[in-house]
Each structure stands twice: as structure tokens, then as C-alpha cells.
Amino acid sequence: MKLVLLGKPGSGKGSEAELLAKTLKVPQISMGDILRSIEREKTEIGRMVSAYIDKGELVPDELAMTIFKERISKPDCKKGLLLDGFPRYLEQANELDKLMKIDKAIYLDVPDDLIIKRLSNRRSCSNCGAVYNLITNPPKKEGVCDKCGKDLYIRNDDKPETIKNRLKIYNEQTKPVVNFYSNKGILIKIDGSKSIDEVHKNVLKALGKSA
After folding, report:
1. Tens digit of pLDDT for each residue in 80-124?
2. Among the options 71, 155, 159, 164, which is catalytic?
3. Domain of 48, in residue numbers
4. Local structure of residue 8 (DSSP, 8 states)
5. Catalytic status, residue 88
6. pTM
7. How many domains does the chain have?
8. Tell me: the pLDDT tens digits for 120-139?
């Protein structure tokens, strides 16, 4: 099964994608994770990616598609995959449509005020990249990663001024992707304001799957 997971920044795509990929036994392909990994490599491409991420802007389509095509060509994607945060806008959705047939697009719907509250309370590990939320998923020890014991920090794209810019870009460029899949008749809309467990149960129910 080939799935796309859509939603605003902070809508819970990452948490749901991790659970859903595990349940369905398919790889989770997160453009955000891929781009941050490239950013940490400090290569020329990494510096280009970093410049866009730090400003809360989307990585240009040509660069994103090159990175994406390389990832989906790997053997673990042959039996299915879950795309988390990709495609981000209409041009990418059209390009993806040429590469593969998407079975379902799941849209996690969350209001802007809750998004801002969620993201401003998000913390990331400086070492392993694990993500926490001080409200819904806090670390056991304040400021310290549960998995590797390293310091947590606030990513530049999780600062309030950047969050507002990310939401503005989403509404202008990414929201049309939701309409794209709705028009194809494969969109599943889920209330993303509920708990992680409730969202996951509702997604599986909509897909006709069990945990």
C-alpha cells in the first residue's frame, strides 16, 4: 500500500507516520527527516537545505525531487511506503503522480492556534534527532533525551515567528495538495486535534485496518 500523510506543520504527521508504518510494515519516508539528515552532513547541498529550513521556507522543488527519487529507489520501498510531509505542493503532487499510484492520502486536520501551541513546545535531540513535546510527549528528565541522554533544543523552525511563516506558506502552497487528492477521490480526513492514540485508531479504521 502506498500512502501519503498530509497536514500542517505540527499536525502530528510524524507521530502518526511512525505508528502507521510500524502497523502496516512499510517504510516511513519523511522529507523533513531526510532534509535534516542532509543538513547535518555539512555538504554543499546540506548548507543549501539549511538556509531554507532556518527561514521556515520550503526547499525548492527540483532539489526536493532529486533527494526524494533517490530515497524511493531503495529496495525497502518495493512493497509499499508511507510518505510523511511529501508532496508539499501541487507541482510535487503532479510529479509524484507520474512516479507511482498513491492508494490513499490521509489528511490530519488541526486548527492554527493548536498548531502554534504544539510547535512552540516541541524539543529535538541534538544528537539522535528524537522529537518530544512538553505538553503531549515530554522527556522523562527536563532538557534531556530519553533515548541517548543528550541535550534537547528548540529548532529554528519551531520558534513562534517561524511557525507563523510556516503556516502562511502551508496555506498558500501546500493546502492545494489536499484538494488535489480530494478531487481524485482518495482523501481521508482525520481530526488531528485528538490524542496520538485516538488519531491512530481513527486512521486505521478509515483504512479498514486493525492494530
Report:
1. 999 998 898 898 899 999 989 999 999 999 999 899 888 899 999
2. 155
3. 2-112+163-207
4. S
5. yes
6. 0.76
7. 1
8. 999 999 999 898 989 878 99
